[in-house]
């Protein structure tokens, strides 16, 4: 009886055994000077939950994370802390090479300061103009380089036109799935323990979920990814 | 013997009994849009250490804190979480009214975005210009309103001309002490458990300390504040 229970336990938890899963999490930080930066409100909770869930299913998980107050889940193959979008891109493109599943939950800054001051900027002027320059689009680069059999999942944190913006992203970035969440909804999105998401597939179909914990949603996202025949063939 | 040990214990820990101490900590967050913000690298560790040390000495401690991953110390009279510099100023000027000691360890953003977008800014342009407007100078306002018998302590996180910048601040902002630290030094400043500080008094004298834990430095700063005859008269 015990043997059988353990067998079931391991079967359930081995659905990603030997599969390399790359997860990105938290927000990037773009320095303005040694003290100040442009950040965003991603806590990392969704990405860390996905990484933890993938570990519990036996995957070889690499987690690339921007600065976060969270403790990385145990059992990772590798934890790669990064700061800026450009640092994140370097790590992600390198690790994506041999990953079967890539889940990009990080909130990457779209812009960085064109000039980063070496010294703390002294506040003498009433107004200050900051010129920002576009960051590389990591998800777009991943989509361009996507290998046969690789599953690419993106996230879209939107405050308006959620579905349209998310569908456009699936196309443009060559994704298999996009997880869309409206960060203006209470108990959804940034720093919340729960999330309210829609899962949009490449074929345009939309699955809606009720308010669930980020860990439960992590399980659902991985279930859907595993259902893809690409992964079943492993 | 036990009674005497307890007596000593309480004596040591009651040096601020009944004294209202206002401490500010962590960095402020200035929104650019619902997702992005300008932040700074203060973790809040120095301010939280001062608040904890003041509580352990019997003070009525009000801690006004920007977003931080830290758990507020137990035994505070009040914990007031804020986000922007303007929110921090409102709370601080209100609470400073009847505080005997005000220690401003927070790293307040000098500028906020002139226009905050209601919706997430879509990244279409190669460059983006952000116009920033100066924030109110909370420490200057505190110095202007300083009451007879109130001790005001500021912090100066500098990356160059540490002493000159700090001395100018003492004068301009009507401070009793300024705690200056060079955040470019390893193991000093932001997010470190230790700090390397110089304590500059109103009379221009400078005390230098070796690398110490932030909690030890909190004790030293409070010792110096208590030595002021203003507080001894309480």
Question: Layout of helices and strands, plus pairs?
Answer:
Two copies of one chain form a homodimer.
Chain A: H1 2-12, E1 20-25, E2 30-31, E3 36-40, H2 45-56, E4 60-65, E5 78-81, H3 85-96, E6 101-104, E7 111-113, E8 127-134, H4 138-144, E9 151-158, H5 162-172, E10 177-182, E11 194-195, E12 197-201, E13 206-208, E14 212-213, H6 214-227, H7 229-232
Parallel strand pairs in A: 1-4, 1-6, 4-5, 6-9, 9-10
Antiparallel strand pairs in A: 2-3, 7-8, 10-12, 11-14, 12-13
Helix pairs in contact in A: 2-6
Mean pLDDT of chain A: 87
Beginning-to-end CA distance, first to last residue of chain A: 30 Å
CATH class of chain A: Alpha Beta
Q: What is the H-and-E element order of chain A?
A: HEEEHEEHEEEHEHEEEEEHH
User: For the report, how would you describe the main beta sheet of chain A?
Assistant: 8 strands, mixed
Describe the structure.
The structure is a homodimer of 234-residue chains. Chain A has 234 residues and is α/β, with parallel strands linked by helices. Chain A has one domain (2-115, 123-232): Rossmann fold, CATH 3.40.50. In chain A, 30% of the residues lie in helices and 27% in strands. Chain A has helices spanning 2-12, 45-56, 85-96, 138-144, 162-172, 214-227, 229-232; strands at 20-25, 30-31, 36-40, 60-65, 78-81, 101-104, 111-113, 127-134, 151-158, 177-182, 194-195, 197-201, 206-208, 212-213. The first copy, chain A, has an eight-stranded mixed beta sheet, sandwiched between helices. A two-stranded antiparallel sheet of chain A has the order 2-3. A two-stranded antiparallel sheet of chain A has the order 7-8. The longest helix of chain A has 14 residues, at 214-227. The two termini of chain A are 30 Å apart. The mean pLDDT of chain A is 87. The interface between A and B is large, with 38 and 38 residues.
